Structure formats: C-alpha cells, structure tokens
Amino acid sequence: MENLNEKEQDVMLKESSILDAKLERRSFLQFAGAGAAIVALTAAGCRKDRPITPASGVTLDFKDDFGVLNYAYALEQLEAAFYVQVASAPPSAFTQVQKNYFQDVQFHEIAHREFFKKALGTAAIGSLSVDFSSIDFTSATSVLAAAQAFEDLGVAAYNGAGVRLKDTGYLVIAGQIVSVEARHAAWVRDQISNGTFADLASLSALGADNANGLDGALTPDKVLAIAGKYVKTKINVINL
Amino acid sequence: MNIVNILEEIEKVDGEIYERLSPRRAAMKDFFNVGKKISLAALPLALGSMFQKAYGQSNPTNVNEVLNFALTLEYLEYHFYNHALTNSTIAFPTPASNAAITTIRNHELAHVNLLKGALGAAAVTPFVDADFDFTGAATFGTAFADVFSNYATFLKVATAFEDTGVRAYKGQAPVLKGMPVLTTALQIHSVEARHASHLRQMAAAAGLPLKPWISNITNGNDTGISQVDAVYAGEQNTMIAGVEITGINGTAVTKTQAAESFDEFLTGSAVKTIANIFIKTRKLS
Description:
The complex is a heterodimer. Chain A is mainly α. Chain A has a two-stranded parallel ribbon. In chain A, α3 packs antiparallel against α4, α3 packs antiparallel against α5 and α5 runs antiparallel to α7. Helices cover 55% and strands 1% of the residues of chain B.
C-alpha cells in the first residue's frame, strides 16, 4: 500500500514538473527521443522510510536508486577529499600544467560530490572520514599512482552500477559523470606513462576485457572492498 | 506546459530549431491548438512526432537498433584510424603518437567484432573504407581535405569522432536501461572517453588549445573548429537535472569547471546527422 502511494506520488510529481513548464533540456530531449519518457526527479524528500544511519557508520541501501546515488556520493566524497589535499599542496615535482589540471580535477570532483548531496537532499548519507595515510602527498609518484587508482576505480564503479538504476534521468547523469572520470583516468595514466591512457590489459582486476576493448566494471561490493583502504567510516551495504 | 520555454531550451543545443519547425507545419499547428491538457502518456508521442518531422531522423528504439547504430559508428572510427595507419602520408611526429593511434584503432576493431558477434544475423552489412569520405567534402568542402596527409587535421577529425562517440553512447544508454548489455555499452563508452582524452592531449601537443576534458565556451565547442560545432552543441551546459553546478552549495566551482565536470549526451538523430557527413553510401536514417 505504501508502495502504491509512493508510486502515485511519483507520478503526480512527474506530471506537475512537466506541466509546470520549466522542463530542463535533458528531460525534454528524452521526450523528443522515441524511447524514454521519464523525467529525472531531484526531489528526494518524498521517501518516508529512510534507513536510520547506525552510529557505527553509513548504510548504502541498494533497494532503489537512492542507494546507487549515495554509493556514487560516497565515491565522489573520497575523490574530492583526495584532490582537495593534492591541490592545496601539490608535489613540488609537478609542472605548472599538472598543477592547473589537478586544480580542475579537484573542482570537477567537488561538483560531482555537491551535485549528489543536493540531489539526494535528506536522503543523503553523511560525510565520510577518509584515511589517506598510505599516500605520500609530497611525492608526485605517490600522488599520481593514487589518482590513477581512484579514477580507474571510479570508472569501473559507475560502469558496474549503471545497470542498477531504474530512473532514466539518473542513468544519463551517471553517464555524464563517468566519461569525465574516464578523461581524468586517461590523463593521469599518461602523466605516469605516456600511451597507457587505455591500457585495458592492466585493468583486468577491475573487470576490464582487453580482447573486446572493454573498460573496467565492478559491482559495488567489489568497489567498496578496494576503496575501503581509504575510508575510516564503516560503510554498511544492504539489499545488494 | 509552456512550449516556448521548451523551444528556447532546444535552441541552446540546436540554433536552427526555428528554421526546422516552421509554424505552418501541421505538426506545430496541432501542437499549439491542443486545447486540453496533454496527458503525461501522450506528451512524448506528441513531441516525438513533431521532432521526428523536424529532424527527419529517428532515434534507435530497441536494443538491436542501438547496437547496429553503435556498430556503424565503430566501423567509421575503425576505418578512419586504419586508413591513417595503413594508407596515408601522415607524418606521425613520434613513435608514441603512432602507437596511440594503433591502440585506438585496435580498440575500435575489437568493438566492431564484439558488436557484430552480439548482433549475429541482425548485424548491418559491414561498412568498408570506400563507404566513407573522411574529409566530409560534401558538407565541409576542403576544410579537412588533408585529413590523411596533415597530422594536425587528422587530430582535429579524430578528436571530433571520439567526442561524438562518447556523446552517442551516452544518449543511447536509456534504451538499454536495466539490461546486461548496458554494462557492455558503458564499458565501451568509457574507453571512447579515454581515447578522446588522449587525442585532446595529442592535439594540445600539436598546438591546439585543448584540455583532456571538454572545456567551456559559449557554443560548447572548445576546439575552435567551426565545422564541428554540432559535435559539441550543448557542452556549455552547467545545469544538471535543474541544479546549477556553478558555485554549487557555496563552493568555488567556476562556470568553466561546471561545464567540464559533466559531459553531455547527443540524441541518435544528432549523431546520425554528424556521421552522415562522412558516410558516402548507405547513410543512416
């Protein structure tokens, strides 16, 4: 019954957002396309049964799109925290171009993080505490290696999570982010070793398939197991 | 709903929308004359048919159509790079630049074979090199005439192809929603984005003012090559699902960084229009 009510509420919200005339381009073009006819809803406040965050950490509940979006939010928090630290005191060995681009990447990740925070509203998980003790922020080699790990993992995470999304709008947005992460990944890899921008053979642990020209793709449990090294906050996963 | 608002939104990605949509068209008349509230279910159909008429091309609507559409784009890319590597007078400045194009060519071939295999008997008849005119002469005249003799021109076209490919896969994702094949499509999509990033770095090394990511400029086209405006239409967008990314939540995210941080998709129709510039025979419809 509650589900039904929620569905009805959703439909009403969608109708009103369409008829209220301020259709944003993305949703609109989905209408113009012959297939999808779902408006991305950013109103996250219509959930009555938000999981209670245990004191021991945050919970990602994958039973619906909010779980996937919170998962992305967690990863973006991690990436943003890393790049904020890099950009605030870049390794002295970095060139000016590298410093500038890391500045850019920092703000791209902040933009992603804040977008999820805003889109999720009251459904958003809290802030994660990070553990970057394994990274030497004075060393260009260490910073680049960590950046590569974060970006390649981020790409594999979005690639593996896309199929879980039920809302077309969110799926498109995930696609809009992942290609930017892939651009970062390629650039960082080229800083380490020019020409390794899409060295898929080296990404097989992340689910890449070099023979078929496929990038990494991992399920959330596998991604979080890898990312766990950099997170102090306990991340509980349910309904995966 | 306010159709004028919608048209204004479209104008941002397609400056010629008003030429395409003459108010004398029956479709438009029907649209403006709808007296009663259009139901949610009918709206996509009404708009869809209107734009189908305006753009004269359709979006793929099912999995096989999407995969064949992707396969055609992969043929275009594969033959383009293969031509550059095996049948051109391009002077690659370094072994690394030649190796990078070889890597990309090999990925496109892998994508062709993968999609062909997935489609089986439903796959389009293979495209061959002769099916394409990589200078786009019918549309661009001599602008890219030296694509296979001038390294810089080659990089310009290559970058435009990759950035188009990235936007094309993004635009088709909704059709594959929730299906295992979506994951495969996303895995190709991010490889294309890696290619685009590297080609942009190669272009920068060759003197074009490009970043690895698509930066912000009024019409979205950060390459400064007017011929490829359509490839970048809308990339200047900083509004995601109604949320303005510039300065979001009081952060210092600039307009440029906001535009860079989210790539945009292209509709199937828009991609077909771009691809058809380079397809001589068997154009996409």
